[in-house]
């Protein structure tokens, strides 16, 4: 059984998602790089909004739905609705850009309110179609459902941030509603989605499937619960609590990185070298860096009230930037590129979710040339990402700016590389 949708239409809307999402990633990286090179405060302030408002919403509203529907086909995919979602997200992106450019925070609040309404539609459908028992039965679906909930909360953060900036002295909006808090909250749904994918398409396929199910079920409570509790202790200013939770999560990330590395090695030996898995390993490596920088961030933020600026000691702001960019351009972006290089060819191959449901989406769907070029692109994007992180420490603005431009160029090349593969043109790589 597959979701009721036209095969050609599903191919079309998934391809539209691919083009728009990669373009947004490239624009965000380009704007950030140009902002550094031109020392332009507007561009520097805008580029994270482009990523989170644009890619953050599209990834959960569309891509996450493909993953969830592949497990529970009763969650139908409506291509017309998904096309509308893309239009509304792009509209919100334009609204936020104008708001930042001319100083209209109420327009930012309106964008957040609109996105809350957009996210509420699939969330309501998920909660009314699937029972709690069904959601909890599938470990990966727990992750996929909660990332929609977290996205709704992130857009609430954008709404309240706009109101706070418009009425800074009203005393109603809490002190912890800041730009940094919005970006932090927006990263959580993306991270949760990747965790669910890792279980469904990596650990779940190992010989020790039952052990993997139990461990990822436990990791769900640790990761999601840890994130929620971490927010509480941040607001309380509890230094010990922040350190304990961050170390617990870091140890979990280390275990994920090691075990996924073992899985990748075994897969490459017994099957073939799939670039998507290499992208996801790179993403996990950056997640480890994110966790390490996060611990340092907490250490140097001791005694500083959450919501203050700078959020940590001024001479250690490079740690804060290294932490955020390791998460965005490393963990989140590389992981989603890997996920897209697995899921989208599967959809293009059959025009449905058939391969995701009962086939082998990790099969060799892409041509050898496409995969080789993806590996080369991964090498370049890793160098660019590391150069950006190191530049925050060294203060080399030229390298930092060029790193962003190179990162954007590689993202666009990866888009071209994928869309020019035969499977995207004929539904078959041969």
How are the SSEs ordered, and which strands pair?
Blueprint: H1 7-38, H2 41-71, H3 79-102, H4 105-129, H5 132-137, H6 139-166, H7 179-201, H8 209-236, H9 239-270, H10 275-300, H11 317-350, H12 354-357, H13 368-394, H14 397-419, H15 422-426
Helix pairs in contact: 1-2, 1-3, 1-11, 1-14, 2-3, 2-6, 2-7, 3-4, 4-6, 6-7, 6-8, 7-8, 7-11, 8-9, 9-10, 10-11, 10-13, 11-13, 13-14
Keywords: Membrane, Transmembrane, Transmembrane helix
Transmembrane segments: 12-34, 46-63, 84-107, 113-136, 143-161, 181-203, 215-236, 242-264, 276-300, 320-344, 374-392, 398-415
Task: Explain briefly what this protein structure is.
The chain has 430 residues and is an all-alpha fold. The protein has 15 helices and no strands.
Written overview of the protein:
- It is globular, with a radius of gyration of 21 Å.
- The protein has one domain: Up-down Bundle (Cytochrome C Oxidase, Chain A).
- It has 15 helices and no strands.
Order of helices and strands: HHHHHHHHHHHHHHH
Class by SSE composition: mainly alpha
Mean pLDDT level: 88
CATH fold field value: Cytochrome C Oxidase, Chain A
Q: CATH homologous superfamily, by name?
A: Cytochrome c oxidase-like, subunit I domain
Features:
single chain, 430 residues, mainly alpha, Cytochrome C Oxidase, Chain A, 15 helices, 81% helix, 0% strand, globular, disordered N terminus, transmembrane, transmembrane helix, membrane
């Amino acid at each position: 059984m597959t979701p009721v949708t036209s095969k050609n239409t599903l191919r079309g809307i998934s391809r539209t998602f691919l083009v728009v999402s990669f373009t947004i990633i490239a624009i965000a990286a380009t704007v950030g790089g140009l902002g550094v090179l031109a020392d332009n405060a507007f561009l520097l302030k805008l580029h994270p909004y482009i990523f989170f408002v644009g890619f953050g919403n599209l990834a959960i509203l569309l891509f996450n739905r493909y993953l969830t529907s592949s497990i529970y086909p009763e969650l139908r995919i409506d291509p017309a609705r998904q096309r509308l979602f893309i239009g509304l997200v792009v509209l919100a992106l334009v609204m936020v850009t104008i708001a930042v450019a001319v100083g209209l925070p109420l327009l930012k609040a309106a964008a957040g309110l609109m996105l809350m309404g957009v996210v509420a539609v699939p969330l309501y459908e998920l909660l009314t179609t699937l029972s709690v028992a069904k959601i909890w039965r599938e470990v990966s679906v727990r992750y996929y459902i909660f990332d929609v909930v977290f996205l709704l909360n992130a857009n609430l953060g954008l709404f309240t941030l706009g109101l706070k900036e418009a009425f800074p002295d009203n005393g109603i909006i809490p002190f912890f509603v800041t730009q940094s808090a919005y970006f932090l909250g927006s990263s959580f749904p993306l991270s949760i989605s990747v965790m669910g994918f890792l279980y469904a398409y990596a650990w779940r396929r190992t010989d020790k499937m039952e052990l993997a199910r139990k461990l990822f079920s436990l990791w769900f409570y640790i990761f999601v619960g840890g994130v929620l509790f971490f927010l509480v202790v941040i607001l309380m200013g509890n230094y010990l609590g922040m350190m304990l939770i961050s170390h617990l999560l870091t140890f979990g990330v280390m275990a994920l990185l090691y075990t996924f590395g073992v899985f990748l090695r075994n897969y490459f030996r017994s099957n073939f070298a799939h670039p998507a898995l290499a992208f996801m390993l790179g993403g996990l490596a950056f997640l480890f860096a994110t966790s390490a920088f996060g611990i340092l961030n907490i250490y140097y933020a001791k005694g500083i009230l959450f919501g203050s600026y700078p959020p940590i000691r001024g001479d250690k702001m490079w740690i804060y930037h290294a932490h955020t960019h390791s998460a965005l351009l490393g963990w989140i972006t590389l992981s989603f590129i890997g996920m897209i290089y697995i899921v989208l060819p599967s959809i293009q191959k059959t025009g449905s979710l058939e391969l995701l449901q009962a086939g082998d989406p990790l099969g060799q769907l892409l041509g050898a040339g496409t995969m080789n070029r993806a590996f080369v692109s991964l090498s370049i994007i890793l160098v660019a990402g590391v150069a950006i992180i190191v530049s925050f420490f060294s203060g080399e603005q030229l390298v930092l700016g060029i790193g962003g431009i190179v990162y954007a160029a590689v993202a666009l090349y990866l888009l071209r590389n994928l869309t020019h593969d035969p499977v995207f043109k004929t539904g078959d790589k041969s």
